[in-house]
Design a protein that fits this description.
The protein is α/β, with parallel strands linked by helices. About 25% of the residues lie in helices and about 30% in strands. The protein has helices at about 20-30, 55-60, 75-85, 100-105, 125-130, 135-140, 155-165, 205-215; strands at about 5-15, 40-45, 60-65, 90, 110-120, 145-150, 170-175, 180-185, 200, 225-230, 240-250, 255-260, 265, 275-290, 295-305, 315. The strands form two sheets. The chain has an eight-stranded mixed β-sheet with strand order 3-2-4-1-5-6-7-8, with helices on both faces. The protein has a five-stranded mixed β-barrel with strand order 10-11-13-15-14.
Length: about 325
């Protein structure tokens, strides 16, 4: 039946005047939707910029505006599918609406989100980050590509990039200047010498190291790393494995979770749960079948008892 056919969904998120509509227009102008297939564009807010009707007609795009969150339901989506019979759907989502509700309750099962873009106005980013951080982090968490636009020379790009990567390590982050130039390779200033074969991490360095090795495990392959962590094990772990972990706050005080990497150690099962240890490990990499990417795996040469760090929480800012 038609209703069961999978429909790819391209989701654009971000707050008002963050550049969502401009981003959609650029995607259309680049010819991404010019294959003759029918596209349904759902606008959940009307911003400062509108896509020209001629451009929509040329690309067989039908546009629908849904202004109230209560009106955007699964039933509404099904009715729109029946009316427009689209081959794909593009959604410009209201940045103030609930992302979890969109994925969990609104989108029909056959509407498959294949790519999520998040646009951020760099000029207002710090204001939103300070006052609406959980909402902003929810956008980052779901996104495949985060675009900071209207960037100035004064912007602290490494910190902004880190705020995304702390929530979503797989997201690509781009910075677009006011003149349209795009920058993606933002160098992270590490507090240790990455060129050394032996790296002893200070307690405050764990967060930056965790993000950097997550993204670039090849930089650390074969190196010896020494750091402090808290013993974490569960029933699914092999007998010779544990995670020397730290508690990280990625968003707010209600969003604290253990982070770390699997570490192989013959006496792992004898380590006391939640005890603090200093580990000296060798780094190797393994391929993740699920995400088709390498990830780090640690092999401990030494595990010694340690005192808890002065600040137990890890921050990424």
């Amino acid at each position: 039946m038609f209703g069961n056919k999978e429909i790819p969904v391209y989701l654009f998120t971000g707050f008002l005047e963050s550049g969502k509509t401009t981003c959609i227009q650029e995607v259309i102008e680049e010819g991404n939707f010019s294959d003759g297939s029918k596209t349904l564009l759902i606008l959940c807010e009307e911003g400062e910029h509108e896509i020209e009707d001629e451009l929509l007609m040329q690309n067989r795009i039908s546009c629908v505006v849904i202004e109230e969150e209560e009106e955007f339901t699964e039933e509404t989506c099904k009715k729109l599918q029946e009316k427009y019979k689209p081959n794909r759907v593009v959604i410009e989502y209201n940045g103030m609406w609930d992302m979890e509700q969109l994925f969990g309750e609104v989108l029909p099962e056959n509407w498959i989100v294949v790519q999520t873009f998040t646009t951020v106005n760099a000029l207002t980013y710090e204001v939103y980050s300070s006052n609406m951080k959980p909402l902003l982090m929810a956008h980052f968490q779901m996104s495949d590509l985060v675009i900071f636009n209207r960037c100035t020379e004064a912007m602290n790009k490494p910190t902004a990039r880190r705020s995304v990567k702390a929530i979503n390590r797989r997201a690509q982050v781009l910075f677009e200047a006011e003149d349209g130039t795009v920058e993606s390779n933002i160098a992270e200033e590490l507090p240790y010498d990455i060129n050394q074969d032996f790296i002893a991490l200070e307690d405050d360095d764990f967060g930056l190291w965790y993000l950097d090795i997550s993204e670039h495990p090849e930089k650390y392959t074969g190196k010896t790393i020494q750091f402090k962590g808290q013993v974490y094990r569960n029933r699914s772990f092999p007998k010779d494995a544990f995670v020397p972990s730290r508690q990280a706050m990625t968003c707010c005080e209600d969003d604290i979770a253990k982070i770390g990497f699997m570490c192989h150690f013959p006496e792992a099962s004898e380590l006391a749960a939640n005890s603090w240890v200093t580990v000296t490990v060798k780094v190797k990499t393994q391929k993740s079948r699920k995400h088709d990417m390498d990830f780090p795996v640690l092999y401990a040469d030494k595990v010694e008892p340690a005192e808890a760090p002065e600040e137990e929480l890890v921050y990424f800012g």
